[in-house]
Amino acid sequence: MEYVVTPLTEEHIAGYRAAFDQVAKEHRFLDYLEAPPAVAVQKFVLGNIRDKNPQFVALDGEAVVGWCVIAPKQKPIYQHTGVLGMGIVEGYRGRGIGSALINATLTAARQRGLIRVELQVREKSLSAVTLFEKSGFVMEGVMRKHAFVDGEYENSVLMAMLF
Questions:
Q1: CA–CA distance, 39 with 97 (Å, rounded to integer)
Q2: What is the pTM of this model?
Q3: Of 81, 110, 143, 159, which is most buried with the most CB atoms under 10 A?
Q4: How many other CB atoms sit within 10 Å of the CB of residue 72?
Q5: What is the DSSP letter of 93?
Q6: How many C-beta atoms surround the C-beta of residue 30 within 10 A?
Q7: Cα–chain-centroid distance for residue 124?
């Protein structure tokens, strides 16, 4: 399988939303149970393009099979910090796509001047925690009973990386 990691552009919005929706509906990784409405996704992506925020997709041909975005925090005292969000469509995991997306996005975050990138991940998502640790993130804390999904409470792990 060949894939290409490229900046997320306007032409990728529908595919990004479809991939996001597919991963969200698994109820395993994201803090969404389905993708936001198309209008909200378009506004988010176009805002990131305008503000030059790091956002990349992995493509298999024309299909978006993964994404990674780092959105800077909005409050002035946190503007040195970005929040990472990502996902890989089932069937494409474990093939190096996550590492490639994280590397591209972190490089862009450094170039943009961010010095801290943080994320939260569900504690049970061991493959995701391992990927983030392998990429240089360290655990900073646990949020107990942070998520309630499919009738169960789950802890989330706070992780961060400093440049």
A1: 27
A2: 0.94
A3: 159
A4: 20
A5: T
A6: 22
A7: 17
